[in-house]
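Summary for the steering committee. The consortium agreed at its last meeting that each partner would contribute one worked example illustrating the joint modelling workflow. Our contribution is presented below. We chose a case with several input lines so that the handling of multiple components could be demonstrated. No manual editing was applied between input and output; the record is shown as generated.
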Amino acid sequence: MLLTRGLEERLEILLKQGHLVGSIYRSLGQEATAVGSAFALGAGDWLAPSIRDMGALLVRGLDVRDVLRQYTARGTSLCAGKDNTNHFTVPELGLLGPISPLGTQLCVLNGVALAFQQRRQSCVCMTYQGEGASRTSASHEGFALAAALGLPIVVWLEHNRWAFGTPSSRESAVGDWLDAAAMYGVPAQSVDGNDVVAVYAAARTAVDRARTGGGMTILVAETYRMLGHAQHDAQKYVLEAELEQWRARDPIDRCVAVLSHMGASGAELDGIRRTVAAELDQAVDEVLAEPPPLADDARTRVYASANLDAAVPWTRGPVPGYGGIAPHVRLRT
Amino acid sequence: MSELRETTYLEAIRDAMAEEMRRDDRVFILGEDIGVYGGAFKITEGFLQEFGADRVIDTPISEAAIVGAAIGAAHMGLRPIAEMQFIDFIAPAFDMIVNFAAKSRYRTGIGAGLVIRGPCGGGSRSGPFHSQNVESYFVNVAGLKMVAPATARDAKGLLTAAIRDPDPVLYFEHKYLYRRVKEMLPIEEEIVVPLGVARTHRAGSDLTIVTYGGMLYKTAEAAELIAGEDGAEVEVIDLRSLRPLDTDAIVASVRKTGRLLIVHEASEFGGFAGEITAQVSEHAFEWLDAPIRRVAALNTPVPYAAALEDYYLPQVDDIAAAARWLLAY
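What follows is the complete predicted structure of the assembly.
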């Protein structure tokens, strides 16, 4: 969680310094849901994050440099500079990248789960969506198919109260989002999304169920998006009192309290903070030294065969003149 | 020489899928009513019995989920065939096709080798939602491949190639041809028609007509009519693939004949003929002796009543009239 928060804070600094292409979608306040849940997965399992699940990627073994490369659009990035944020797919780590139209990654992750099912592999898939994304037709279709086929999948419905600038009360008439989950006929449970231990426990139960043929589980994480949708959003539509209330439930503070209660010393915790900072310092330095992609790479990797790379626009080469290119119809007679 | 059997266009599609499923256990099919019922047109009849419920998957009515699952399975190395019960119903899967499948390799380096197939086309009095030709909705999207077979051999050969292809392929099968088109095809001998290669259906020197899918037969009929009545020889090019497009074959024919007519069953405005026109303008303008013309469907939805649909669709007389206009130019 410290690495997640630290990395996102670095990204904000890099943005202000002009190193970033695009924006940042912070997961401040939601780190426990991403981190605790991903710890319940094992080798060979797959995970498809939403934009606010940075922590899950790091738990699954993603190098912080790969995150920095994405946001700074390096040629060395997992998307080779062709897409941003967490939109990468890394089969070796079992990571399926989302796309910007929401709800869709559930449909695609179903296919991964289907492959596990067909091959009789006891692997599990996990994915996340905000309550806003859960209103899309793709999301509904994804839930319906996964439930009907009994796919081994755990879906987190992250009720973080805001979908961009729209409150969750405007996304659905349900008061309790567990009611929205219940309609698919699979086990569903609400969890305190800011309690990393509770998240892990619920995820573990759901993962075990999926792994042993029990099919899909939907987990509703009750949490709060503590910042605006992205850097351009000053979150003026949120009441300060509400933020204050949730600030008191900060997932890192709560985790530190638990660890202290269990006997962790202040020196140990500071040591962890220093290690995280040093790792991030080094990663930022390394990545900023890496080159951007070559412009001509924009044409490549559209299809498997390089023969089908996009043509160089004819205006980018010597423009042909009209003298003597093609003799007229006499040639044909 | 292997034994020949009369094979309909529909049977060719069925055979291609069954043979690939027997050859490669990574191939599977998912869609609506394809298993227990055997498919709305009975294309997958007997598949459930032969291949089992793991590889012949009945799904809810959810085209986005069908295509989405196919993409995920393709990422895992499987070879999914996603059936759209009618190609008109591809609309709910548009996002999955255009934003997920098509862009996956470009964005992430991980391809989505899958086939999305379904019955297209009119002439069967099926109205606005069971008759469309949807190629122009997709042809602008980089990352997709698109085929539209007209013959039984191509139906089989293109589907086999599409299933083996590492990229997402939209396979438009014309439902009017399902049981009307038949051909002697070898049994137990695989047919593979490479994607992106056109076929000269009829050789000629006076006019080139480029067409594909269901319009091949009306075009060929018009060509014969003109040969008989006018003594002019029309070259008919059957594109077979729309993307990649065999521009070389079109340009070579136009450079020979100097005249080009494009015929397709989809509506004219923004239709695929526009792209072919641009390609020929760029690569063979100096060889043209006449304007490029097109014959396509009305710029309306596909109507239901016979009189309306017949007027909507390009007919042999329309093609012959346009051909004669060009020959006389």
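The two ends of chain B are 48 Å apart (CA to CA). Residues 4-186 of chain B form a domain with the Rossmann fold fold (CATH 3.40.50.970).
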